[in-house]
Amino acid sequence: MAYPDGWTELEGRLMREFSFDDFLQAKAFIDEVSVLCEAQQHHAELHFGWGYVVIETYSHDTKSITQRDVNLATAINNLEG
Length: 81
Known about the structure:
- It is globular, with a radius of gyration of 12 Å.
- The protein has two helices and four strands.
- It is an alpha+beta fold and about 80 residues long.
């Protein structure tokens, strides 16, 4: 399975780190990602702090990376612009 640009598999999860200029930009991005997760009913694990966001996604029911994860990662990438 091909992963979207910037995403890699680490410890069985699809992961990507994003960089921002400050805490508020990182939080605003988290808010946008949260809306996508709700819309897709596929909830990623979100970690953020000053100037960074790390997103991890995998399908809990199969304990693996599935097409749902790839679809979510692609949608998240589309937020960049």
